[in-house]
C-alpha cells in the first residue's frame, strides 16, 4: 500500500472511531495534528465526517463488493504510478465504507434499546427562562421576535437558539434602593444575559441568577444556583463577586465556569485570576485550574483540567473526556428534561469520552456510548434506563 493511501486509510479510520466515541490517546493526537497541517486537511475532515454520518449500515453484499473492488485495485496498482487524486478516489470509494462497517455499524439492527431518532417525545433544550422582577412580577422569556420591556427599562432580545436579557436603561426612581431581579432557567433550558455592567453570563439548565438592577458602590455582587459561565467586565475599582453555596468567587476581569448542583461547588478558570474563598480557606486560581469545595469538610481542592470539558456547553457542545457515566447522564437529564435510572449503580462509574452538539437527538449520543459494548440504554417515555450490555442471544 502506498504511503499516501495508508495515510488516507488511517485518517478515515480515526474519523470513524471519533464518531463512534472510541478514538483515544495517540490516535486522537495524530488526527488533530493532521487536521492542523493545512486548511485542505480541515476541509477533508469535515467532508469525511459528513460522509460517514450520512451512510446507512452496509449490507453483507455491499461489504463483499467493497472487498472485491479493493482486491482489484491492489492487483491493478502493481507496476503503476497512481496520482494523488486517484489514491484519494479509491480511499473514498473503498476505504471509508470499510471504516463505516468496522467502527460505526458493528451493532446489528435490533441490538439497541433505542428507538429511531424521531420516535420519542424527547427533544433538545433551548433558550427559555423566567424573569422574576424586583417588584414580584414574572415575565416568561422565549426565543421570539420583538422586544419585551419590563417596568425597570430592561429589554429582552432574541438571539437564535438562546434568548438574551440586556439592560437598556433604568429609571431614576428604580435606583433609589438596591433591588434584585432573578433569572430562572428550567430543566431543558439555557439563557444568555448581559448584566448592568456589561458582564456576559451564560446560564445552563436548572439554574438561577440573582442580580441587582444596577451595581452600586465598590463591589459587584451576584448569587448563582446551578451552572453559569461568566465573562466579567474589568473594573479595578469594583471587584466582581459570585456567591454560590456559601463560597465567594472574587474577580476583577476574567472568564470562568461555576457549577453548583446538588450541594457541590466547582469553579473552572479559563482566563484571568479568581480567588475562591470558603470558610476560612482561600485559593488563588490560575487559568486551566479547577477548584472544588469538598462536601463535608468544606476544604478546597484544586487540579489542572482540560477546560473544554467544562465550558463547551455554552457553545452548544457536549464534550466529555473520560467522564463517568453518572455525570454524563446527569447532564443529559437536565438538558433533555428526562429521568435516568441505572439497573446497577456500578455502571455509573464507567468512563467514556464522547462529543456531540447539544441540539442533536439524544439517541445520537447514547448510540455512540452503546457502541463501546459496555452499557445498553432503553428509552421508556421520558425515562432512560441504563443496563449492562449483553451480546445478542446471551
From TrEMBL:
Record keyword DNA damage present: no
Start and end residues of each Protein FecR C-terminal domain: 318-385
Keywords: Membrane, Transmembrane, Transmembrane helix
Residue ranges occupied by any FecR protein domain in the UniProt entry: 186-274
Segments passing through the bilayer: 87-106
Keyword Membrane recorded: yes
Pfam families from the UniProt entry: FecR (PF04773), FecR_C (PF16344)
Protein name: DUF4974 domain-containing protein
